Amino acid sequence: MSGITDCAACPLRRRSIFIPMTPQELDYMRTFKSGEKSVDRGETVLREGERSEVLYTVLSGMATRSVLLPNGRRQVINFAFPGDFLGLQGGLMQEGAYTVQAASPMTLCVFPRARLWELFRDQPERAYDLTWIAAVEQHFLGETIATLGQRDAGGRLAWALFRIWRRLTALGMAREGVVPFPFRQHDLADALGLSLVHTNKTVARLRRDGLAIWTPGRLRVTDPRGLADLADIVETEEEQRPIL
Fold first, then answer.
1. Phi then psi for 171, rounded to 5 degrees?
2. Is 188 helix (H, G, I), strand (E, B) or coil?
3. Is 35 left (phi over 0), alpha (psi -120 to 50) or beta?
């Protein structure tokens, strides 16, 4: 696989957050992967309502996942991080369920959509991993709905920042409590049902209270326990997850 990352040498697979593959599974993924794609910040990876011939795993970088509402406004439904699988809904249906837009430069592992059913037929363990990924995404959407309905502005933002900070920390991306954070306040406002002004004021309050400091491109969580308490989250270890 000249010019692209060999699955056996994938830097993500060294992270304890990901479930190890057997040598046989790695051999199969080498044949299933068709290439890599580089994406610039702001570029659309997948578009809602359009059919994509490929699926992706995020090798590096981050993205927003969003849908367009009838009134023309954008609703961010969640975010994509290294190790996440993109396009599964569009792979099972005829068109993409949401738009994926790069929040930072990204490198994506590319898989042909036409071979998805082959994976289900010949690699049941890999197919189960896809089912697990879909189930976790559905669970996260349910938690997001609960957040929008039951948490105030401070709780919503604390929940989102803590969840993202903890995921990126588990991915080994934290340096002295600081993780890269390419998202804009507008992205979090769209995701959490807040106005941009309200989001800005809440970010300032979290900083003033010594919980988190969000500056362009960086997020420092200065008091993880306090931020989790504000979000009404019980701190647990990030669950191990499969990676394709």
1. -80, 0
2. helix
3. left
CA quadruple 227, 14, 18, 26: dihedral, nearest 10 = 160
pLDDT in tens, the chain (244 residues): 447 888 888 899 888 888 888 888 888 888 889 999 999 999 999 988 888 888 999 999 999 998 888 887 888 888 999 999 888 765 555 666 789 999 999 999 999 988 888 888 888 888 778 777 777 765 556 566 555 656 788 888 998 899 899 999 999 999 888 999 999 999 999 888 888 998 999 999 999 999 999 999 999 999 999 999 998 887 667 778 888 8
Report helix, strand or coil for 66.
Answer: strand
* Residue 188, C-beta contacts closer than 8 angstroms, at least 6 positions apart: 76, 157, 160, 194, 199
- In the chain, what are the helix, strand and coil shares in percent, each to the nearest 5? 45, 25, 35
- Three-state SS at 106: strand
